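Hi U.,

Before I forget, here's the chain from the pilot set. I'm dumping it here mostly so it's searchable later in email.
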Amino acid sequence: QVQLVESGGGLVQEGGSLRLSCAASGHFSTYMMAWFRQAPGKERELVALMRWSGGSTQYSESVKGRFRISRDRSMTNVYLQMDSLKPEDTAVYYCAASRVGHENNYFWGQGTQVTVSS
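Structure:
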């Protein structure tokens, strides 16, 4: 059973930084890990994604140049460094992962709240 546990959310002022962490457990061959977010009244959206083989990344246009997704050497943790935060970045942030052969079936973490005050 794959489990994802996020941490690192909180309240920050506009222009500040936060770093989210996601710890993955359970034996699975990772295809990708990603960060999504959902603001009140809005649909969940992809923020950043990393494909495990090769480490290629992609970002939503709204965070490009401000956020960076990374992983550690153990390849069981993924991070989201968020800089130059804006009030519109306020949302619940979710870690997601999928397995090789099941690329479109996501496992989800419980989410962590990020609030950016102006």
